[in-house]
Amino acid sequence: MNQWIDFGMVRDFATEKTNAYRLCTARDGWVERFGTDVLISYKTEAAREQLAAELAQWSSLAGLSFDRVFGRFLPKKNAERIAPQLISGFGGIPLERTVIERDLCYAIDFGAGYSTGLFLDQRANRQFVRRLAPLRTLNCFAYTCSFSVVAALGGGATLSLDLSRKSLDRGRDNFMLNRLATDQHRFLADDVLRVLPRLARKGETFDCIILDPPTFSRSHTGKAWQVEKDFDHLLLAALEVATRDAKILLSTNCTRLDERALEVMARYCLKATRRAANFQPPVRLPDFPPGAGARSLWMLLR
Ligand SMILES: C[S@@+](CC[C@H](N)C(=O)[O-])C[C@H]1O[C@@H](n2cnc3c(N)ncnc32)[C@H](O)[C@@H]1O
Question: Does 278 lie in the same domain as 158?
Fold first, then answer.
């Protein structure tokens, strides 16, 4: 049997009002709870079958029952990514659901594509932003704007940037779910690399900047962007709109970039712009074993 989270942790999550978290990380996949549903992500059919069998055993011991279990194949190529498929449970209920993380609501959609709407490995980084209560947040590659939601809670303004208008619309829904008015908040469907220089020319500055780019991206104009090669360009452009003491999150899912590589890249950018920063790794999540989930680093400018 793979390593599943212990029942004490399940109680801790319930106490902190969180019902979306990782249940198990295995060699060829992982299992995540999204409220009343479960998603098994797998690299092989054998892993899917084993994780489904272990989930049935674990949930009965934990005294938990789930409405549905979805499966999602993890292909090597992004182009082969497809939406999760129902493995077991009720087929007749909507694919959209709401989950709770530290008493905040986020909309999930198992039918919207490969990703459900909330990246669970960013929980500690969201909490960091929530505690920070920044005045002005720039959320680059915002997806469904979960970072903007936590930033907005403190009363500050946010700018959420993403190529996908659909994702930003889901972001607005997340604001509404948490009864946050959107008048102080901007949602811009555009290429981050095109918008950053524009913001700098206008003299806009931000005290919190989220940089969580995809491994590979192609803008509407067809220009390719690759995180390993181009993260430094992105950070240099972000530093142009960062206040003196801004906090910048560097995060990536690219397995070839670890925290050390992020720090080396960040030090190079600081030197090039004659700025200084302290570095802080995010708090480790109890449900993600070392090496699982995104690699992140906070830059605390000074
Ligand atoms: C890894 S997700 C970001 C996840 C987000 N930080 C979160 O925690 O929910 C990547 C997002 O980047 C967007 N994206 C990709 N290339 C982009 C670009 N050049 N400019 C703006 N957004 C882009 C995608 O549409 C996608 O929503």
Answer: yes
Give how many domains the chain has, as a whole number.
Answer: 2
Separation CA 115–CA 34 (nearest Å)? 12
- What CA–CA distance (Å, rounded) separates 236 from 226? 15
- Residues within 6 Å of ligand 1 by CB: 119, 122, 141, 143-144, 146-147, 161-164, 167, 191-193, 212, 214, 217, 219, 225
Q: Is the entire prediction scored with pTM above 0.90? A: yes
Check residue 4 and report its DSSP letter: B
Q: What is the pLDDT of residue 13?
A: 98
Predicted local distance difference test score (pLDDT) of residue 237: 97
Q: How many residues does the chain have?
A: 302
For residue 161, give the ligand 1 atom closest to its CA: 21
74, with CB counted inside 10 A (0-12, 13-18, 19+), is middle
Q: Which of 143, 210, 231 to mutate to test the pocket of ligand 1 (most atoms within 8 A of CB)?
A: 143
**Domain boundary residue among 109, 134, 152?**
109
Position 114 in a domain: no
- Alpha helix (H) residue ranges in 2-44: 7-15
Q: Which of 163, 257, 285 to mutate to test the pocket of ligand 1 (most atoms within 8 A of CB)?
A: 163
Q: Which atom from ligand 1 is nearest to the alpha carbon of 139?
A: 6
Q: What is the CATH number of the domain that holds 68?
A: 3.30.750.80
Name the 3-class secondary structure at 15. Answer: helix
Question: In this predicted model, what pLDDT tens digit does every residue of 236-278 receive, in sequence order?
Answer: 999 999 999 999 999 999 999 999 999 999 999 999 999 999 9
* Cβ-contact 252, 215 below 8 angstroms: yes
- The amino acid at 157: A
Compute the distance between CA of residue 207 and CA of residue 302 in angstroms, rounded to an integer.
12
Cα separation, 174 vs 193, in Å, equals 25
